[in-house]
Amino acid sequence: MPHPGLSLGKKEDKLGIRASSTANIILEDCRVPLGNMLGERGMGFKIAMQTLDSGRLGIAAQALGIAQAALDCAADYAHKRTAFGAPIGKLQAIQFKLADMALAIESARLLTWKAALLRDAKKPFTKEAAMAKLAASEAATFVSHQAIQVLGGMGYVTDMPAERHYRDARITEIYEGTSEIQRLVIANGVLKEYQQ
Predict the structure, then answer these.
(1) Average confidence (pLDDT) over 32-44
(2) Active-site residue, 176 included
(3) Do residue 108 and residue 17 come from a single domain?
(4) E.C. number, please (predicted)?
(5) Residue 103: inside a domain, yes or no?
């Protein structure tokens, strides 16, 4: 819907998550009717910050989906690809990679469920949301990297989904706060618990 003073910047060409458009929203001499204001005047930053916890849960879920898809791709390939007369999934090195991938995913999934349960119960979940987002996003990056290793050269070609998982995973460690920010949020929550 056109509005005077409101325009969009150029669409960015991104490394991953390409199905989602990214562009700047440009406000130049834009007047917004008072009835369209969200919250109270001067409270915009506080309102925006309050959305982060739920947003972090969403990013954790997205990262888990990427990680699970990467594991599914790697496990399927390990069953089907043969070397020296046997599936590569019989090799201990591949089995250890798959085990570590599954462990990272399940650990992050449980943290995500815990944060979601707290949110649904209307209890504080800032620390738990940060833990879920951190664990899931780092799991997505780790698992998608390991999937490429399992697939070998085939993991690097665009015909296989592994390279897309790898590209898509990377942003999950950045938006809704970087991994470093999540660690600060978690540490702040831990320190608050020990003050009481």
Answers:
(1) 87
(2) yes
(3) no
(4) 1.3.8.1
(5) yes
- List, for residues 150-196, the tens digit of each pLDDT value: 999 999 999 999 999 999 999 999 999 999 999 999 999 999 999 97
User: Could you tell me the residue range of the domain that residue 24 belongs to?
Assistant: 6-31
Please state, rounded to an integer, the average pLDDT across all residues of the chain. Answer: 94
Instruction: Indicate if the pLDDT at residue 33 is higher than 90.
Output: no
Task: Give the pLDDT of residue 174.
Answer: 96
Q: Which long-range contacts (CB under 8 A, 24 or more apart) does 120-128 make?
A: 125/53, 126/53, 126/185, 126/189, 127/185, 127/186, 127/188, 127/189, 127/190
Q: Do the beta carbons of residue 118 and residue 128 sit within 8 Å?
A: yes
Confidence of residue 17 (pLDDT cuts 50, 70, 90): confident
Tell me if residue 57 falls in helix, strand or coil.
helix
pTM reported for the whole predicted model: 0.89
User: Containing H/E element for 102?
Assistant: helix 92-120
What is the tally of structural domains in the chain? 2
Among 138, 163, 173, 176, which one carries the catalytic annotation? 176
Q: Give the containing element (helix H, strand E) for 95.
A: helix 92-120
Residues 13 and 178: their CA atoms lie apart, in Å, by 21
Residue range 103-107: mean pLDDT, rounded: 99
